[in-house]
Amino acid sequence: MRLDEAVWGLLHEALQHYRDNPRATDHLRHQLARLEQPLRIAIAGPWRSGKSTLLNAIMGEEVAPVDGVDGSTVFTWYEDGPQPSATAYASGQPPQELAIAKSATGMRVDLVGWRAGELRDIVVQWPTRTLRQVTLIDTPATGRDEQGRAPVMERVLRDADAVLYLTRDGRDSDLRVLETSRESAVGQAAAVHVIMVLSRVDETGGGRIDGLLTARRLARRQHRDPRVNELSVHVVPCSGLLGLAGRILSESDHAVLAALARVPRPELETHLLSADRFLRGDLPVRIDTGVRAALLDRLGLFGIRLATTLVRTGCDSRAKLSAELIRRSGLAELRESMARLLIDRRDTLKARSALAAVEALVRAEPGPGTEDLLGRVEQILVGAHEFRELRLLAALRTTRLGFDADLAAEAARLVGGDGIGLAARLGVEHDATVHRLWDVASEAQWRWRNRAEDPLLRLAQRRGAQVVVRSCEGMLAELAEGGR
């Protein structure tokens, strides 16, 4: 049985079991509706980790944060809509439409007058291609309360299908909050719905130009950390500030940066030692204080240093500088990882959310027959090939299976680590013929079946090879049905 069919059947089985419990049945119907909705991706992390800036960078417009909101409690949802709008949801009050003001680079919603803690959610509708496949959720800062609970993260894991978890350096306290996700059977199945983002990478290495390279080395080291592997499917360094600056860079911004770049580097560097020097010092070129402040707000000191260097070395147009800032920020890599690891696996991640919801309901409201429901959750988790692929991907990121680097890379590709399309899995050109796809898939199936049946290999390696064989069989079946 397909995963989506198994989950749909489980939800209806749970509905029948809890038919006399209105609260539970409403919750389960909500989960059924979620299966047809866009993928929900929450952007979470500790205070000042750059969540709102990264959301703006992904959107390519300045739509977050919402002005005047008490960010300690409010979840702000960004979804596609025919026209810009915002709605406030507060406990014990009907939804209220909010006035919005559009700007050249986005919008602002003014919430002055709302009391702290009064709002629960704000839903912003914004017409953009980015939100056609996903709903983005800007969340309050994560952390633990006096009882050791992580209430924000608990809600993130309940309401979102996938998470971008922001951390400056992946330190222990940040990881402990993320470990909240492993307190259930679904969570222990591998944190395949989390991408860890090393944010504020422009601050790594003391703000030096090579700080981005330092951040990438840190990400590779984190990628090999067994504890991080248990909590996330990938680690990506990304400066939301630089990425956003690249996406909304204007011609006037480029003109100011070009003027600064014409100043000899040693002379300019003395004015970029601090924000105060840049704003109040006597620059060698005439730039209005308001323009300086806007540029500093948009790029930061590191971004100004980097942008002027890029202009000196060939980024002589707005388009060139914009593209290079986006590339160096890590935003392109993050968006590609989101597409490959989250959006392309939308149905699997939504099924995971539904299984987690049923498990949480059964544990919160146990009774006669609920053990059978819990057993069905675990049966689906263990039996669904989609989850086996994701568990193997997590295992392949470490060396514990014992595959050499080339075998591990091939296995990861065949089970969808480079994308779930047939061409991506088989490592061939995207316009390859069905005949070529069939030949490559058949050859891969034969090679990996030999490994799966090799008695000299460790049991873990043979089981991993069996998962790869099943993936190859699925590709051949799809090709036989006329798929590509």
TrEMBL record:
Gene3D superfamilies: P-loop containing nucleotide triphosphate hydrolases (3.40.50.300). Residues 41-168 form the Dynamin N-terminal domain. Pfam families: Dynamin_N (PF00350). This is Dynamin N-terminal domain-containing protein. It comes from Micromonospora terminaliae.
